[in-house]
Amino acid sequence: MRKKIFKPIAIGAATALISLASLLSYAIGLLRDKVIASNFGTTSLTDAYNSSFLIPDILFNLFIAGALSAAFLPVFSSYLTKDENEAREIANTMLTAATLLIAVLALVAFIFMGKIVPIAFENADPEMQANIISMTRLLLPSAILFAISNTLGNILMSYKHFVAYAISPILYNLGIILGVIFLNEQFGIHSAAIGVLVGAVLHCTIRIIDTTMTKFRYKPQLKVTSPAFRKILKLMIPKSISLIAWQINLYIFAVVSISLIEGGFTAFSFARNIQSFAVSLFGIAFATAVFPYLTNAASTNNKVKYTEHIQKTIQRILFFTIPAMLGIMIMAKPIVEIILGGGEFDANSVQLTTIILFFFAISVPFESLVHILARGFYALHNTITPMIINITAMTLIALCTIFIAPKYGVKWFSIGFSLGLILQATLLATLLKKHLVEFKFKEFTISIGKTIAASLTMAAIVVILSPISDIINPKLASLARIAIGGGAFFAVAALIKSPELSSVKYILNRIFKKKIHEKT
């Protein structure tokens, strides 16, 4: 049974699987937010909970995530095609080093957390600081588990195993939900932090199981002087700097929002999670699925295939994210009410989150493009260029947060974010252009033109249907507007023969065929 589930998957099936799993994961992730919002609202408690992720995430992003996302997969994949034994040694070294390093750093952070938090969050009251300290200590072991799990995830992708990679985020979110549901009365907001730890265990376990279905077998090794590992270290540094630039921005968001308004950082986090739905479902899913094939094309110097992968992925991403952007902007308040409204999440919470979400929506296509454009450079073993561009964008975001948001309000958190992502996507595309061979500009222009036409039609219909909220239940009316608008988009896309519609049909066919196969 395990061999039937955990096995290599081709690029089309991988895209379908990751897209569907991302959809389910983010649906459960929004349910997670609903559970947290209805139980705790946008308060200093939830601000403390969201702030408690910062230090564990900094540890993971500074020392591990950069190596995994930009360096390990290309290097491991290239060795896998040349010398499988050497590839295994690289993976063993990475897995051992990542686990030991994060474990040591987590232990040090655990010991000194009582001194770190009062300095880092000096504007927070003593009770909030105490909550951040205790919940951060609860979350630190999750950094160790994610170091293991994400290393295994990259190994699995190299072997074209995508099932556990796709399912693990779903299990993570379920862990948080179960933690709040069953432990809330006893532990309060700490139940969510306990749920994170449970989710991290599930996230890691499913990937361990899938890894046993590959040829890789773990053996503790620390060949840190090998040329391959040194290459990973060299490539990871720029990406790690980029990731830390974002973590610094999150810290700035937290500190500024805590000083501006209670629950501001929580509203930002909720809005960011909603905005990330489309980014993850299309931008990250498509870029992740194509990345192993992109690295293969680059390693064999097949520039035409490399370009084809990038162009098709860009067109597919924009086909889904342009209408998503317009839809979220038009329906921001109803979306927040449907997903988060109720319980402790009152009208003020809805309004605060809506304002931030509206401007966050602008970034959806641009952030989605960043994932494939950056991977275009990573496949070429170039992490310097994306780093410089990322730092430039993060600097713009930080300046907006520090100097404009305190004067003009928390909406500038998401306005600044969108401006930074627009700049980042533009610079990445401009500099990647010289590596593209036989890019079909006419095909690209026609594709984007048709996507925009279908999106504008969808937006017009959603606006025209707004009066139905006065006739039927507002939430039901909002769901109807979303469904009709989405249907109109795909109908117009089919009518004008948008080429990206074929990718939707392909994914649906793959799903349908898979279900038939499973029944037989």
Structure description:
This protein has 520 residues and is an all-alpha fold. It folds into two domains: 438 residues, no CATH class; 81 residues, no CATH class. Helices cover 84% and strands 0% of the residues. It contains 19 helices and no strands. Helix 17 runs antiparallel to helix 18. It is globular. The two termini are 14 Å apart.
Structural class: mainly alpha
User: Runs with pLDDT <50, length 5+?
Assistant: 510-520
Number of helices: 19
How much is the average pLDDT? 88
Largest sheet: none
Number of individual domains: 2
Question: In angstroms, what is the radius of gyration?
Answer: 23 Å
Which percent range describes the beta-strand content? Answer: under 5%
Helix content: over 70%
List SSEs in N-to-C order: HHHHHHHHHHHHHHHHHHH
How far the N terminus sits from the C terminus, by CA atoms, comes to: 14 Å
Strand element count: 0
Shape: globular
What attributes characterize this protein structure?
520 residues; 19 helices; 2 domains; single chain; disordered C terminus
